[in-house]
Design a protein that fits this description.
The protein is an alpha/beta fold. The protein has helices spanning 13-24, 63-66, 83-96, 154-159, 188-197, 224-228, 238-253, 277-282; strands at 5-9, 28-32, 103-104, 109-114, 126-130, 133-137, 139-142, 180-184, 203-207, 212-215, 218-219, 222-223, 270-273, 286-288. A four-stranded parallel beta sheet has the order 3-2-1-7, covered by helices on one side. A three-stranded antiparallel beta sheet has the order 4-5-6, with no helix packed on it. Strands 8-9-14 form a three-stranded parallel beta sheet. Strand 8, helix 5 (188-197) and strand 9 (203-207) form a beta-alpha-beta unit.
């Protein structure tokens, strides 16, 4: 690259990491953050309005395979860090690599447009507009995330007569005490939320369109992802890696059809990671549809 000034949009994990490497390479970096906090989606109740983190959220992979290679978590952090651990870690990352002074907080980027004429052979430059004005940069890197716009189901969001909430807006289980709750989906967030609300809800139903492979969080007293990392080798075919992972999940949970999931088909199975949902289903705290 021959560019000098670089704008990075977002002070979450992607933005901070991008800025760190660009600064280390000698570029003049500015980070624009729409809110007042470092951490992006991992900042619980982030005032940027773009975080979908709920209070009981934990990462799906262990700290050993989640950390950046050049900075570890603090020694007392749990094996599967929660959203508060992740936020502290990203703040530590920003401080450690001297990124915090580069951040312009409360600076939403309103528009990015070309500031050059390619027909004249001019080098690319970009005009970044904020509420404070505009500046010209040689390159722009977007670290704005992909989870800030939830996909709603029109059938429910438009016609359902009860309370409708997308998992993006879920924060804590207290609002669902003594209520009948239907959780649609069998992904990571759906299983987390079903396990979250089922203890105090009147009834919790989990709707699964397909049969998942539910990976345990712990196996043989170790984080499951630390075990499966051993088979993540380029000389082991991906098909064999998937089968080994599915076999280990079967050892942990057995045949999921006995819990009520439909028999799996030949189509690719969806992988979900959760440490409690299988027990919640087995104990009838969560009912399957």
């Amino acid at each position: 690259m021959t560019s000098n000034r670089i704008a990075v949009i977002g002070a979450g994990a992607a933005g901070l990491c991008s800025a760190k490497y660009m600064q280390a390479a000698g570029f003049d970096v500015t980070i624009y953050e729409i809110g007042s906090q470092i951490g992006g989606m991992w900042r619980y109740m982030n005032d940027n309005g773009l975080s979908n983190a709920y209070r009981t959220l934990h990462i799906n992979t262990s700290r050993g395979v989640t950390r950046f290679h050049d900075l570890d978590f603090d020694a007392d952090v749990q094996p599967f860090p929660d959203t508060f651990d992740m936020h502290r870690y990203l703040m530590k990352y920003a401080e450690h690599f001297e990124l915090t002074p580069l951040i312009r907080f409360n600076s939403p980027v309103r528009r990015i447009e070309p500031a050059f004429d390619p027909a004249k052979g001019e080098a690319p430059r970009w005009r970044v507009k904020t509420d404070a004005g505009e500046e010209i940069y040689d390159a722009v890197m977007a670290g704005t995330g992909h989870l800030s716009e939830p996909r709603h189901i029109p059938m429910f969001s438009e016609t359902f007569g009860g309370e409708y909430l997308h998992s993006f807006d879920y924060r804590a289980p207290e609002d669902f005490v003594a209520k009948r709750v239907c959780v649609i989906g069998v992904g990571n967030s759906a299983c987390d939320i079903a396990s979250d609300v089922c203890v105090t809800s009147a009834k919790t139903v989990l709707v699964a369109r397909s049969t998942p492979i539910i990976l345990p969080k712990l196996m043989f007293g170790r984080p499951f992802t630390e075990i499966t990392r051993k088979i993540q080798r380029p000389w082991i075919p991906a098909k064999i890696r998937r089968k080994l992972t599915a076999f280990l999940a079967w050892i942990a949970h057995g045949d999921l059809t006995k819990l009520g999931f439909r028999a799996p088909t030949k189509e690719k199975l969806h992988v979900t990671s959760n440490g409690t949902i299988v027990n919640d289903i087995a104990y009838h705290r969560v009912h399957l549809k």
